[in-house]
Every structure is written in structure tokens, then in C-alpha cells.
Design goal:
The complex is a heterodimer of chains A (357) and B (197). Chain A has 357 residues and is an alpha+beta fold. Chain A contains three helices and 23 strands. In chain A, the strands form five sheets. In chain A, strands 1, 4, 6, 8, 9 and 10 form a six-stranded mixed β-sheet that branches. Chain B is mainly α and 197 residues long. Helix content of chain B is 72%, strand content 0%.
Amino acid sequence: MKRNAVVVLICITLILAPGSSVANPGGNGDGNRDYSCGGSCHGDPALSMPSDATIEITLGNEAFSGQAVAIHVTIDDISTPSQIVGIFILGSLNGNSDTPEDHGWHLIQDPNGGSSNYIETKVSSSGSVTVTWVLLSPESSGSHTLYAEIHHGSYAGDKAFSGVSEPFEVNVQDVPEGLPGLADDWVAPSFRVSGDSSPLSISTRNSTDITVEWMLDGEWNPTTAELVCKEDSEDVCNDWEVSIPATMGEANILYRVITFNGTFSIEQPWLKMGTAPPPFEGEVWSARAHSFAFALLIISFLVTLQARLYPPNQRDDMDQTQIVASSEMIRSEENPGWLWNPDTQEWVEDPDYEGGN
Amino acid sequence: MMVGAATFHTAMAEIVVGSMVLATLCAVGCSMSRILPSSEINNESLMVTMDRASLAGSVLALIFLPIAILSGNVAADGQAESALLYNKFVYSGLALGFWSAFVIGRIRMGPGLWEERPLAILQSTTAGFAFLMTSMASSIGGKLVRGESLFDVFPFWLPTETAAILPLWASVSLLILGITSSALVFRFTLPKISRIE
């Protein structure tokens, strides 16, 4: 009775154990997502609660149509056990087609170095974090609305918290003729491989010259990078190669492009470039051969060990039995009690012979 | 209706892991049964049942393990593009080796092997290592697909995120060594092992 109760208790514990991790407490990873992931736990009124955090959006620089603009999202007073928070930058709150790209913006870089409208980051111990997206403003001038949304967990673990900012109006101004900027189709590289010092390609538009400043993440004094124009044109050059030193480990480089054209001198937002580990060099055929080699070596070793530990008395018995069982000896009626071994061309005693009885 | 390679691989891996859990528990149980004194629970009937269950479980797993490995190969698109995938190959090979040795030993020596303490310990240790290697390979599968594994809760574990990569020539040399040693063992050593009465 007691044993049955223990078994039942163990079964119930095992069934309930995964309950606490039904959600994704580690997050879903960065990506392009609509408002509340288009109906996740965080958007379900039965499973979610409004977050106490305050969310504020600010503009890093004046927005001109088709030009880069930095959007800062500051979150304060957030309370989350894992310190992980998911942050969205959105063009609407419909639950579909909400990404800024759906509303005419173009993502140059997200706060993690990628180009997603949803990112996951950690908040400081004081419950605050500020992140920056760099976007190209829509081509159409006028008022454009952006929202920031956050997702996080709760200490009780039973609710998915969600919060959304007030609508933030961005007044996109008409671009003056010849205003230099970053090219529409250029996406800032999110990382370089560790030790890679190859030049960085930057595409601009309407630029007669550019300057690139760089510094390591955490530093304050930028260094001007050497650069060359890849075009032969004498007036405007929109393809550049910039020499930024190689990085190692987990270092991040911040860099800023300043585009020039006549009297225009436009400081583009700071961009971040991380350091990625070198690509994995393993080959699939090497892995396959390695795998089967280990299999065969293990079999050889263990069978040898089995033979080594095999009891000696059994080995002796086996030897006698094997002689008769495995050989193809010929029993002759003319010589009862004897077997002819064609391999050795000898007569041997028949162990089964019982004296003719 | 077609089923994706990854889904098929998961199903095969689940059969393998399930069978191996049964085989490992029963193999360790057989050893324990011979170490512990006989009692109402620890009787001959239990011993026979556990021995047969471990054999059935390990044979079933050994049949499905190559299918799981092959389907995993297809699901991985013939790539070993990360240390996790490379290690999955290596741990699968180790699991195959340990389980094959377990089954070879049990079939050649029969249930009488549990009567010989050194062989019983070797056999249950082999099953334990085989299960460890299989668990590692399947745990890596969880890491690749879901980014987490049940083994994450353990503070110590075998390495999965760093791999000792061998160049192709070294792997092939190792494979030739493995084939040669297996051929020698099957030709000269295996015939010395027979059913223990």
C-alpha cells in the first residue's frame, strides 16, 4: 500500500514538473514579429497582466525621408525574475503587419546588431534599459507613428507580462535636394568574424565624401578610419571601403558615418558591429568516420574484455565441445568409437561413443 | 503523406531511448540481483524477466539506432556545421559501440553471464555507458531543436558545445584501425567466448 502511494506520488510529480516551464522563460530569440507575437501568451488576456514598467521612445536625430534615424527606447521600473525582456518596435498594434517595414520604414540595425523589430536583452539590476534601433525613415514625408512594446515574465511564474508605449509621432521632413545619406538597400553588417580585418563596405547616396569614426563599445573617443572610394566618379561616390581594425573575443565596435555633399554634413546614427567566433571547421565525412571508428574500437575493446573475464573452466569445457560441434568429422561404421578428421587426416576418439550400447 | 526527416528522426530516437532505458535498468537490476541476497522480491523469476527484458530492449534499440542515425543524417542535411552536430555524430557512434558490445556479450554468453560477477559488472557498466552516450546524443538533439535540454539542470556534464575535430585523414585512419581491430577480435577473440552453462 505504502509502495503504491510512493509510485503514484512519483508519477504525479513527474506529470506536474514540466508545468512550470510551459512558456518560454528564456525567450524566443530575436526576429520580425507583430504586436504581441500575433497572439502569444503575452497577448492573451487570460494569461497576461499589464507590466508596471514605463516605456519611452525618443528620437536620436531629425528625421528626413529616406534618411537614417536613431530610435531610442527606454524602459524603467521593470520587474522580471530572469532580467530578460523582449522589446518590439512597431508601426501599429493590429496583431498583423505591425513591423516598421510594413509601414514604410527600413531597419538598418537593431540593438543587438541584427535587423529585427523584436529583440531580447537583459535589464540592469535597477530595472532599466535603453536600446536603439537605426531605421531609414519612410519615403513619404509627414507624421508617422511608432510604438514600443515589451514582454517579460513574472516572479510568480504564472502570468506573461506585457506593456506598450504611448504612440510616438515621428515628423518625417522632406529631404532637401542632394542631401547625402546611407543607401536604401544597405544593411549594416551585424558582426565580423574574429580576427577578420577585411575592409567594410558602406553604400551611400548623394555623397561626395564621407568620414567614418569608430571606437570600441564602452570607449568615448572615436578614431577616424581610413577609407577609399570604389567608384571612378569625380563628383559623387556612393561605394566605400572602410578599414576598421579586426576584433577578437566578444568585442563590439561602434562606428558612425558622416556623409558630405557640398554644404551638407549629415551625422548618421552610431552603428554596432559585434565579433563572431570563427566558422566551425568540422567536415561531415570526418564526423561520420570518427563516429564509426569509435563504434568499432569500443566493440573491439569490450569484446576483448569479455574474453579476458570469461571464466577459465568454461573455456576448457568449450574447447572439447567445440572440437566435435564445429568440425566436420566423419563417423565410420567400420571403426566404431572413432571419427575421421579430414583437416588433419587423423582418427580421433568420438566423445559421444558409448561403447556400442 | 510524407513525414519530414526531422520528425521521423525524433520518432526513431524516442524508440531507441525508451528501449535503452528499459535495457539499462534491467541490466543494472540483473547485476544487483546477483550481488544482493535472495529474498521474496529478489528471486529467480525476477532475474529471468529482467535478463530477457534487457536483451529485448537492447536488441530493439540496436535495430532502431542505425535508422535513427541515418534519419538524423538526412535531417541535418548532411552537414556537421557546429560543434553540437559534430558531437552528436561522435556520441551516436559511441552509443552504437557500447550497445553492440552489450548485445554481443549477452547473446554469446547467454543468461549465465550474470552468474559470473566480473562479467555481470562489465555488462551492466557497458549498459550504463551505452545509456549515457545515447542520452548525450539525444540531449544534443534537444539543444539543436529547442535550445535547451533536460540535462541543463545538471551542474556537470560531458562536453557538447566544444568538439575535438579530427581532420578527414585522421578520422579515416582511426576508422581503418577500428575495422582492423574488429576483424581481428571477431576472427580470434570472439570464438573463445561461448555460452556459460
